[in-house]
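Structure in, sequence out. Go:
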């Protein structure tokens, strides 16, 4: 049986996007589908990472939690001992491997999150009924940054204290609130042991909030992929161990007196600290830093509301045909249909009527197929037209089956 390429299938005007923006996304999606098919041939469907783009960050996060617990056994949250406690890991069996894996799994997680965001965006799964997962995803991204940056602050080396003073200067530049934010960040007016304890709290609290935000993120997603296959998990673990072995995570030079030390950065720090690396340049000050940060997250929050097309296939209930059987409400994957009691004058008692909540409707048409009484239609696709389209597809299905039998 020969399969028609996705870009050569005859398209009905109902499925052809009308806006240039959606046509652009459709072309990218077509290219992505071709890449997915190639990977299916190379590594099989079960091991294709494209199908686990949301599960991979979750799997890596669990790796971070386990390695972080290992580091917590030896870490001492004080100004004078934080640096030595991490250096001590070098003589602990597998201590260096645990530290390096914790560092690099954080980088892998952030990269995987951005790839997940990119895929969700180009497949146009970030608007309308999927706005809640997108907005909670932006919240998850901010928590990942807080957890990652606070992890850098815990090292107690030259880079950590330089980053501390950069953040302090950026907080002080906030109008009206600068002094209060500075004191809250340091746990006082100057750096002390309370400062390091505060950094450890930020790190653990952000990681803990990721669990709650992840639950919110998955509420509106039907049957999300939460677990990777054994092959993908082994590949991620192997990549982490390989990078950890080739480039072990090491501290920068120690700082005897953390008054105003210079900030130093390594090449790998660009993953989590691009803004602070730019902030260390003389031409870029705190104002520009805050401007870039606010614009970046502001655009992410605004993306679902930009360039929106008119939705024309939201489910509609034909009230005269609805018998209140609740099949559509049970089958709806996104809880977009609720059964509401409506008073029946003729029967002198309430009847149940299906009511569609448009923001949750995905225009999937599942409710149309679940209704035995033709009481639900899609906006621009009435039931009669859907039935005609199905009848037109039947001969093509039979011809494909005959061709397969001949092969």
């Amino acid at each position: 049986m020969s399969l028609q390429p996705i870009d050569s299938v005859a398209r009905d005007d109902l499925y052809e996007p009308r806006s240039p923006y959606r046509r652009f996304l459709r072309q990218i999606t077509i290219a992505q589908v071709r890449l997915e098919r190639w990977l299916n041939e190379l590594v099989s469907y079960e091991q294709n990472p494209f199908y686990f783009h949301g599960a991979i960050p979750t799997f890596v996060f669990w790796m971070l939690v386990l390695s972080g617990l290992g580091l917590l056994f030896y870490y001492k949250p004080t100004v004078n001992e934080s640096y030595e406690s991490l250096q001590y890991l070098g003589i602990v069996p597998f201590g260096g491997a645990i530290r390096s894996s914790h560092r690099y799994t954080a980088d892998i997680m952030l990269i995987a999150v951005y790839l997940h965001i990119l895929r969700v965006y180009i497949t146009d799964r970030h608007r309308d009924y999927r706005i809640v997962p997108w907005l909670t995803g932006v919240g998850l991204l901010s928590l990942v940054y807080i957890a990652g940056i606070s992890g850098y602050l815990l090292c107690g080396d030259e880079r950590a204290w330089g980053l501390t003073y950069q953040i302090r200067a950026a907080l002080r530049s906030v109008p009206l609130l600068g002094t209060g934010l500075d004191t809250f960040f340091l746990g006082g007016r100057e750096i002390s042991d309370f400062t390091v304890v505060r950094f450890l709290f930020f790190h653990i609290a952000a990681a803990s909030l990721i669990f709650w935000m992840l639950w919110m993120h998955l509420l509106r997603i039907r049957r999300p992929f939460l677990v990777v296959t054994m092959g993908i998990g082994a590949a991620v673990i192997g990549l982490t161990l390989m990078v950890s072995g080739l480039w072990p995570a090491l501290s920068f030079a120690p700082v005897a007196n953390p008054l105003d030390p210079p900030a130093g950065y390594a090449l790998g720090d660009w993953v989590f600290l691009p803004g602070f690396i730019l902030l260390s340049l003389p031409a870029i000050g705190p104002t520009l830093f805050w401007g870039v940060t606010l614009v970046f997250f502001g655009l992410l929050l605004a993306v679902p509301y930009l360039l929106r097309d008119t939705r024309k296939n939201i489910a509609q209930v034909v009230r005269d045909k609805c018998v209140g059987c609740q099949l559509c409400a049970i089958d709806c994957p996104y809880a977009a249909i609720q059964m509401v009691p409506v008073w029946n004058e003729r029967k002198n008692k309430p009847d149940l009527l299906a009511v569609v909540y448009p923001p949750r409707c995905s225009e999937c048409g599942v409710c149309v197929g679940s209704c035995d009484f033709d009481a639900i239609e899609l906006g621009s696709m009435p039931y009669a037209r859907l039935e005609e389209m199905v009848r037109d597809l039947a001969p093509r299905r039979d011809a494909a089956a005959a061709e397969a039998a001949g092969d």
